[in-house]
Amino acid sequence: MSLKPVFSDEADFRLLNDFQRDFPLMTRPFARIANDLGVTEAGVLSRLTSLREGGTVSRVGPVFSPRRIGASTLAALKAPPEHLEETAAVVSAHPEINHNYAREHEWNLWFVVAAPDAVALARVLREIRRETGCPVIALPLREEYHIDLGFDLAGKGRTTTQVSYGPVTPEVLTPAEVAIMQVLQSGLPLISRPFASVGNSAGVSESEVLSTVRDWVARGIVKRFGVVVRHHELGYRANAMCVWDVPDDQTNALGERLAAADGVNLCYRRARAEGWPFNLYCMIHGHDQAEVREQLAKIVAQCELADFPSEVLFSTRRFKQCGARYVAEKSTND
């Protein structure tokens, strides 16, 4: 499948590909991007607005690191197939849900919950169980071998993987940081001086917003800051979650090997749950299922995973996809 219809020219391509990370954290970031691309600031803002409205761009802003702030988990639910859509609507209605996908399995609805703390996270899961009447399992992250959430549209692959082992103590944010996060988690406003606007909404200065975001990036609280694209709209219409049940004492070695394989977008270890014995995960995205299955076969052979119990769950429908909300949205009455 060609991706050409998404891009009007080389500058358009670079806008989506080059600024998923290394976004200029400065007073007028879009002017700097425009200078790099050889276009106008107004042109960059207009194109990003159009791409956001069309769904190709989710937002421009931070991708927070799992476990560094708040609490989050992947969860799965068994919905009666004839009630899948209405069940998904109940789940998506919770603001703490940032991803909600149907997948090919008896555990047919998969969603990510992000909340300010573990107590709030448990409350959301209890409410979803009660409201849907369906079995729900929580599968919290234990180790991350590679989590980036970016897409290399040039097909050159990545050169590094990021490994984080064991439990991580969430950062305690100051009231000013919480206020900034509350505004930033939905993305930057697409205007000439976006950080000044964020500061105005958060009750702090533009310089404090910029220094805070730079500090978050340096400390790893923000994994990357930049253009967040949606893979489906870019032509990556086959999305497979691949899971294996491997011995605990082999998980880290296999996880590092799997994370380094070409075609793996995400790779991590999660807790097992009753009725779900799998602990090693990776995500593979492709233009169609045949492409993904071909890539997966190569990965399984390369990483010597063929002897372990496994499942491949292709997504069949996206019900919700947005940035994680670790802080409650500001009330319009505030």
Automatic annotation (TrEMBL):
Q: Does the keyword Cell membrane apply?
A: no
User: Which keywords are on file for this protein?
Assistant: Lyase
Positions in coiled-coil regions: none
Q: Name the source's superkingdom.
A: Bacteria
For this protein, the record's InterPro entries field holds: AsnC_trans_reg2, HTH-Siroheme_Decarb, NirdL-like_HTH, Tscrpt_reg_AsnC-like, WH-like_DNA-bd_sf
Q: Specify the pathway.
A: Porphyrin-containing compound metabolism
User: EC number(s)?
Assistant: 4.1.1.111
Domain Siroheme decarboxylase NirL-like HTH span(s) in chain numbering: 14-55, 179-222
The molecular function GO annotations come to: lyase activity
Q: Where is the Siroheme decarboxylase AsnC-like ligand binding domain?
A: 71-145, 234-320
Statement: the UniProt record of this protein carries the keyword Transmembrane helix: no
Q: Which chemical reaction does it catalyze? A: siroheme + 2 H(+) = 12,18-didecarboxysiroheme + 2 CO2
> PANTHER family per the record?
SIROHEME DECARBOXYLASE NIRL SUBUNIT, TRANSCRIPTIONAL REGULATOR, ASNC FAMILY
**Annotated family:** Belongs to the Ahb/Nir family.
- Tell me the protein's name: siroheme decarboxylase
What does the record give as the organism's lineage? Bacteria, Pseudomonadati, Pseudomonadota, Betaproteobacteria, Rhodocyclales
